[in-house]
Amino acid sequence: MRSNLVAAIVLIVVGLFLLASNLGWTNMNLGRLILTWWPVILVAVGIGLLFGRGK
User: Fold this and answer.
1) How far apart (Å, rounded) are the C-alpha atoms in residues 16 and 8?
2) Which tens digit of pLDDT belongs to each residue from 1-41?
3) What sections of the protein cross the membrane (predicted)?
4) Whole-angstrom Cα distance, residue 16 to residue 22?
5) 28: closest CA among 17, 39, 38, 37?
6) In terms of C-beta density within 10 A (0-12 exposed, 13-18 middle, 19 or more buried), how is residue 32 classed?
7) What whole-number distance in Å separates Cα of residue 30 and Cα of residue 48?
8) What mean pLDDT do residues 42-55 have?
9) pTM score, whole prediction
10) Contact present, 52 and 2 (Cβ < 8 Å)
11) pLDDT at 54 over 60
12) How far is the first Cα of the chain from the last one, in angstroms, to the nearest whole number?
């Protein structure tokens, strides 16, 4: 259940970033943002897997 919630939140956040970019509300480049912060995504996934194994 927790992984479904995390996946849903990630999809919502990515969708909001894309929508804001398409509507011209922000000039953020999502590709550049991902290229800069991809290691954080790996760390977050690893921490999630580590704490999820206790179930």
Assistant:
1) 12
2) 566 777 788 888 888 887 887 888 877 776 777 778 778 87
3) 30-51
4) 10
5) 17
6) exposed
7) 23
8) 73
9) 0.53
10) yes
11) no
12) 12
Structure tokens at 10: 């990630």
- Identify whether the C-beta of residue 3 lies closer than 8 Å to the C-beta of residue 11: no
Candidates 27, 8, 7; CA nearest to 17 is 27
**Sign for the pseudo-dihedral over CA of 38, 3, 6, 48:** negative
The token pair that represents 9 in the structure block: 């939140």
Confidence at residue 1, expressed as pLDDT on a 0 to 100 scale = 59
Write the single-letter amino acid at 52: G
3-state DSSP assignment of residue 48 = helix
